[in-house]
Design a protein that fits this description.
188 residues; alpha/beta; five-stranded mixed beta sheet
Length: 188
């Protein structure tokens, strides 16, 4: 067991819903060790697994949690927020016109341009690489002869979580493996 006399680096805790599934896959639901300990002391979570690392105060010692589960179930039926990140996640971080997966140059495109009355909604926005966005410009899809690969729709939280499973994080602690269900060919 490792006992620290200074603040530990890293040691995030995987946060599970009350049904023992991660709150989200992408980004992966992680709390800092400080937030995890606070939730433990406030009796909001149960500790499922622990690191070997122990922190102590003058009169208390505790191993850092590596996996915690909420005591109260968080319902995922709510509608996800319309954000640039969620649009990219819905579209699999790929340009909907050419299929490029260049995350560095990903933008979002109004299918019906704002100059032609298009609104910024789930149904009118798609992920597009900079080159395709520039090539389409202010034109309608039929004018530019550019059509999205998939019809844009408002996703559910479940769909966004499922899409996020295709993007496993670079770091996975071994105590998390039983709770994360990545596609087998994508495991790090």
């Amino acid at each position: 067991m490792q006992i620290l006399n200074r603040a530990p680096d890293g040691c995030p805790a995987l946060v599970l819903n009350a049904d023992f599934r991660p709150l989200s896959y992408f980004p992966l639901s992680l709390w800092s060790w400080q937030d995890a300990l606070k939730a433990v002391f406030l009796d909001r979570v149960d500790v499922v697994a622990q690191y070997e690392t122990t922190v102590r105060s003058p009169n208390f010692e505790i191993r850092l949690p590596s996996v915690v589960s909420l005591r109260t179930y968080v319902n995922h039926a709510r509608t996800p927020a319309f954000t640039r990140f969620n649009v990219f996640l819905r579209d699999g971080f790929e340009c909907q016109y050419c299929g490029a997966g260049d995350r560095e140059n990903l933008t979002f495109d109004h299918i019906i341009p704002r100059s032609k009355g298009g609104r910024t909604t789930w149904e009118n926005i798609v992920a597009a690489c900079s080159a395709c966005n520039l090539r389409k410009g202010w034109r309608l899809p039929h004018e530019a002869k550019m059509f999205p690969a998939k019809k844009p729709v408002r996703p559910t939280m479940f769909e966004l979580n499922e899409n996020g499973r295709a993007f496993p994080p670079h770091y996975l602690h071994e105590s998390w493996q039983d709770f994360l269900y990545w596609d087998s060919e994508l495991e790090p």
